[in-house]
Amino acid sequence: MTTETGPQPVPEATSEQPTFVPIVTKRGPGVGTTMLIAAATAAIVGLGAGYGGYLIGSQSQSSSSSAPAVIAQAPADVAPASPGSISAIVDAVLPSVVSIVAEGPTEAGSGSGFVLRSDGYILTNNHVVDLVKSGGKLGVVLTDGTELKATVVGTNPAYDLAVVKVDRADLAPVILGNSDAVRVGDAVIAIGAPLGLAGTVTSGIISALDRPVTAGGSGDTSFINAIQTDAAINPGNSGGPLLDATGHVIAINSAIATLVSGGESGSIGLGFAIPVNSAKRIAEEIIATGDSRTPIIGVSLDMNFAGPGAKLIKVTGGGAAEAAGLQVDDIITQINGRVIDDATELVVAIRTNAPGDQIKVTYERNGNPRTATITLGSSSGKG
Fold it and tell me: Looking at the whole model, is its pTM more than 0.70?
């Protein structure tokens, strides 16, 4: 089977170079965090009790006729959320967001997801459910605390997407937006379960579009044509929705950049999400067939070529690139007018399309510019 390219190693993290990592929480949904919070609460309560005893003792020595001090406080009545506010959007969408717990043969982890259809189909990241590909248990926790057994319907590691199914017919689905309509500076909201803290809401803006990102752990490497956001997302947010100001899902939170080497990574304001337009096609294909298609042009790339452009080191016989006249050592510099800086950007630019789409390719051969129209082929999303 011909693939676009071999996995690109993730650069070693330094103080100047970010590493993109999937944001799944491993080894359980925040149990240690819960214990730490509980311990801190107990310490505060104990201190408060001691201080309260001191006050009682002191007051017993003072005049019993002293009037109690009264401090003004707002009434407990809660006004309805203003239409279009973050709280109104969260009220509407939160019932559609779930926590996902995966227990594999040797590891456990947690992430997030959201309901696509009322009959139990849920979208998440492939790296959230990857722990159970060799066996184990997969569970979904609804916002009301209901725990459900889940099964994997299908995955596409190339896009870092997966669809899981629970046995329910009354779930509240999200409304999908259109990621082609988003702009840099638009307000966004992220919902998920970072560190196992279900229902966590953060907000920010879209920081950049079409950001080429590779992410992956010890298994498959995903190439993402990412929407970048400064909304705080952390380990465990993986698979959760990124919403626009109308409450529509425009992307799926998938990776963060970190400057920390080793240990758990955390938000530094550089989060990356998979555009929903690509995710919608993959999810629909998985639900219909259990599989999905990844567009390819039938080449292998020199991942060490410094650019600009992506250099071909192999052209597959009978593939789309060969049919369009491309050859080994050609350097692709543009796809549909998008400038290609390196091999990673070529892969993500191709994957914004669907198999069967026609793309205009600009390339160089011996320093001379050429153009060609390529009809994209396809490979199974299962690899």
Answer: yes
